[in-house]
Amino acid sequence: MKNIFTLCLLVLTGFLNAQTVQSPSKEIAVTFKLTAEGRPSYSVNYKNKPVIKESLLGIALKETEALETGFEITNTQNKSVDESWKPVLGEQSVIRNTYNQAVFSLVQKATGRKLDIVFKVYDEGVAFRYEFPKQDKLNYFIISDEKTEFNLAGNHKTFWIPGDYDSQEYVYNETKLSEIDNDKLNLNNGIAVKSIGGRYVVQSPLMMKSAEGLYLNVFEAAVVNYPVMHLDVNTSNFKIKSHLVPNAIGDKAYLQAPAVSPWRTIMVSDDARDIVGSKMILNLNEPSRIEDTSWIKPMKYVGVWWEMHVGVSTWDLSGTQDASQKSVGKKPHGATTENTKRYIDFAAKHGFDGVLVEGWNVGWEDWFGNWKEEVFDFVTPYPDFDIQQISDYAKSKNVKMIMHHETSGSVANYERRLDRALNVMKKYGYPAVKTGYVGKIIPRGEFHDGQSMVNHFNYVPQRAAEYKIMVNSHESSRPTGVSRTWPNYIAAEAARGNEFNGWSNGNPPTHETILPFTRLLGGPMDYTPGVFEIKMSHYDASKTEQVHTTLAKQLALYVTMYSPLQMACDLPENYERYADAFQFIKDVAADWDESKYLEAEPGDYLTVARKAKGSENWFVGAITDENPRNTTVSLDFLTPGKKYKAIIYQDGKTAHWEKNPINYEIKTIEVTSKSKLKLNLAAGGGTAISIFPVK
Predict the structure, then answer these.
(1) Phi, psi dihedrals of residue 346, rounded to the nearest 5°
(2) Cα–Cα distance for residue pair 442/451, rounded to 1 Å
(3) Residue 8 pLDDT more than 80?
(4) Please, what sign has the CA dihedral across residues 375, 377, 379, 382?
(5) Burial letters 192-221, b for 16+ CB under 10 A, else e
(6) Residue 519: helix, strand or coil by DSSP?
(7) pLDDT at position 3, please?
């Protein structure tokens, strides 16, 4: 359905040509104007209360006058859009895209250069971007800074991580804006490469809550041919400014008109569910560029992976390299033909789609920490990994293999070898690849979040699409909705994943209640849930590390952490030990017709219900932070008049994420749309529910 019509929504206020654009619901209003110096500025109100006070806009250019002052408005164009589109994979089978738009065409009087600023106002927030029209007086140009401001209306509670150019793998801090300070952080956190941009620089998306109960989120969408935007925070006046990640020589972006910046977004609501359930970021991206998407399919997978993180085996053939950095002696190589077949058998027995194998290829003995360019060739297996035999065996079991390409940050090497690597995948029937970018980037001096690396992260799925291969990136820049344009970019990590629980101080119980309000707004995350043996002392009595959740919460994460690519990350023998709980992972879907966010509070709790694609099966996930929680959930989303069987996987009476994490209970009851379920979540706990129609 598509209905686009022109509608004038400009309200002339009579003050320096100020013009206002409202959301379809009229609850959000954006006012744009030029200051007395001809500087573009904007402000945002929600239900007639200020959210963003007057904030300046502009672009600084290298070796030429900035696009910042001396403007006049030459034209304004307005329209309203109400359309729907169908994602290839997603939380919903149909996504509505409705907004009111205004395009303000500006000319800088002294130079004659043109700049357009486009606003889209949605019911859940505001998006705007800079557009550089094709023109004689601006062709090739270099952006040295972006002057975008977000002048906040108060000292909000904020969920933040430092503005690191190379990593997002941080635990979130929950403080007032005035208390943001990277110098006060404990950086002994398991992150190998850190490049923090300054004492008061934080990453977007930046989730906030005002004292009046408003939820705000500052982020960006459609980051293409442009660096990632971090945020400079003035802790005194709560003014936030864009902070673009530089390249090796300090420049921010090289562009040629016509060109556009990414969308800068501000979500606002008095209901946290509106933020976490928003599809605004996806809507701001371009439609799919892949015509035939029939080969893009959701996957649940197991893999030779967690056993290396917990120290049972190693990535390299020699058995001396241990990513947990606590090697106590020689350990076996994980990626052997025999061990891989064991995982294939397990996947086939339990109905999983795929098997990931890390450490299959030569190079792991000398892969990290040396800033080495020629590390992996992505085509040569270790001698104990028979790629042909494994491929044939997987096909005989109707199991797909997932390739692993760790680059160790040597992107120049990977791009040189990419087509050969993709050809090997096609030869042996691998439909998906997990890429990795651990370490400092080569070309040397570049950052993970700079323009050239953003282009690389967008290029790999584009190139892979020509081979009909899906991509799951780890250690990449965080997604900003690009999975709409390249739906084979099926998932990414780009945040602190479950793996940190295996060998570091881990992720606190609050972590998974924040990620859906931050990282997951930009696209699906390969969080790798499903750890059943919670304490690492199971593998080595001297270890004190553990997963900071209950087992039941690990199940609930399959619903609350959306991804069409879901890993059951634990070892096969651990799942066999807890086969009754493992049934939920086997049952839960990975692609959805409908998703309903029933309860939400960032940093505290989240409850989500999802309807499996093409079926009447529903799945519910409820999680909490370090505090136990009792709640009642209505099942009014079920079809009226139908009976369903609900299988409830819940924390046991003495469950606790630290003291008793594997204490769980399973019960089966009959429910209808009139049913209400009382859920009792332990500290760091959760509940997972499978709901099937009664036949």
Answers:
(1) -65, -45
(2) 14
(3) no
(4) negative
(5) bbebbbeebbbbbbbbbbbeeebbbbbbbb
(6) helix
(7) 40
Percentage of the chain exceeding pLDDT 70: 96
Residue 7, SS3 per DSSP: coil
Crossing angle of helices 387-396 and 411-428, in 10° steps, is 50
| Whole-number pLDDT of residue 329 | 55
User: Quick check: 328 pLDDT over 60?
Assistant: no
| Alpha carbon distance 82, 7 (integer Å) | 12
DSSP 171: P
Is the model's pTM score more than 0.90?
A: yes
Rounded Cα distance between 560 and 210, Å, is 24
d(CA 609, CA 594): 8
% of the chain at pLDDT higher than 90: 94
So what's the pLDDT on residue 366? 86
Amino acid 162: pLDDT: 98
Contact 661, 547 (CB under 8 A): yes
Active site (annotated) includes residue 291? no
Sequence-ordered strand ranges (E) for 342-488: 354-357, 400-406, 432-436, 470-474
* Structure-block tokens of residue 494: 């780009």
Which DSSP helix (H) or strand (E) runs through 646? Answer: strand 644-651
Cα–Cα distance for residue pair 445/194, rounded to 1 Å: 13
Q: State the Cα–Cα distance between residues 447 and 634, nearest whole angstrom.
A: 47
Residue 83 is which amino acid?
E
Q: 264 forms bridges with which residues in the sheet?
A: 128, 220
Which residues fall within 8 angstroms of residue 292, CB to CB, at 6 or more apart?
none
- Cα–Cα distances (Å) from 214 to 149, 272, 520, in that order, read 20, 8, 20
Phi first, then psi, for residue 336 (nearest 5°) are -100, 160
CA dist., res. 544 & res. 538, Å (int): 10
Contact between 472 and 400 under an 8 Å Cβ cutoff? The reply is no
List, for residues 42-72, the tens digit of each pLDDT value: 999 999 999 999 999 999 999 999 999 999 9
What is the C-alpha separation between 51 and 216, in angstroms, rounded? Answer: 8
Q: Is 382 helix (H, G, I), strand (E, B) or coil?
A: coil
In this predicted model, what pLDDT tens digit does every residue of 372-413 receive, in sequence order? Answer: 999 999 999 999 999 999 999 999 999 999 999 999 999 999
* 3-class secondary structure, 418: helix
Cβ-proximal residues to 455 (8 Å cutoff; 6+ apart), any chain: 225
Lookup: tokens for 408: 């160790």
Of 146, 307, 499, 512, catalytic? 499
Cα-trace Rg, the chain: 25
- Rounded-to-integer distance, Cα 259 and Cα 256, Å: 6
For residue 68, what are the CA distances in angstroms to 40, 76, 466?
7, 19, 41
- DSSP letters, 219-277, are EEE---SSPPEEEEE-TTT-EEEEEEPP-TTS--EEEESSEEPPEEEEEEESSHHHHHT
Give Cα 336 distance to the centre of its chain: 32
Name the token pair of 282.
């996806």
Token couple for 607: 């409850």
With cut-offs at 50, 70 and 90, classify the pLDDT of residue 322: low
SS3 276: helix
Strand partners, 301: 354, 567
Helix (H, G, I), strand (E, B) or coil at 572: helix
